[in-house]
Amino acid sequence: MNALLLTAILILLGNAELFRFIGGAAVLLCAAAVLVRALRRVDRNQLTLHPYDLAVMLAPPAIAAALAALAISLVVGHAPGSFAHTMGLVLFTIEFALLALGASDGADATPEAARA
Fold first, then answer.
1. Engineering a disulfide at 78: which of 6, 85, 92, 109 sits with its beta carbon 3.0 to 4.6 angstroms away?
2. Torsion 81-85-89-90 (CA) sign
3. For residue 63, is it within any domain?
4. Eight-class DSSP state of 78
5. Do 24 and 83 contact (CB within 8 A), yes or no?
6. Range of the structural domain that residue 8 is part of
7. How many domains does the chain have?
8. In Å, how far from its chain's centre is CA 20?
9. 113 is a domain residue
10. How far apart, in whole angstroms, are the C-alpha atoms of residue 66 and residue 111?
């Protein structure tokens, strides 16, 4: 939800340089958080981890980060209201939301008493 709100604020501000800086920083932070979570998972399962598992853990966030960077370049490089600019906004929203979901802690919010 916060990723969508940040994207909406950046769109409403309409400043390309601000979109590049804030959007890029947010994407880098989310990608770094996903990488740290993946490395922690690798550290726990060193004996049972296969290269395929590593690819499955790292490829989707890497693709999402690359597509978010492409979206930022589309937003910054084209005039507001153009097709490329609009597609960049849509692509950034989707990919940033996916990165934010991957970077979230994923903790179960169910109280302990309710699990019994």
1. 85
2. positive
3. yes
4. S
5. no
6. 2-105
7. 1
8. 15
9. no
10. 37
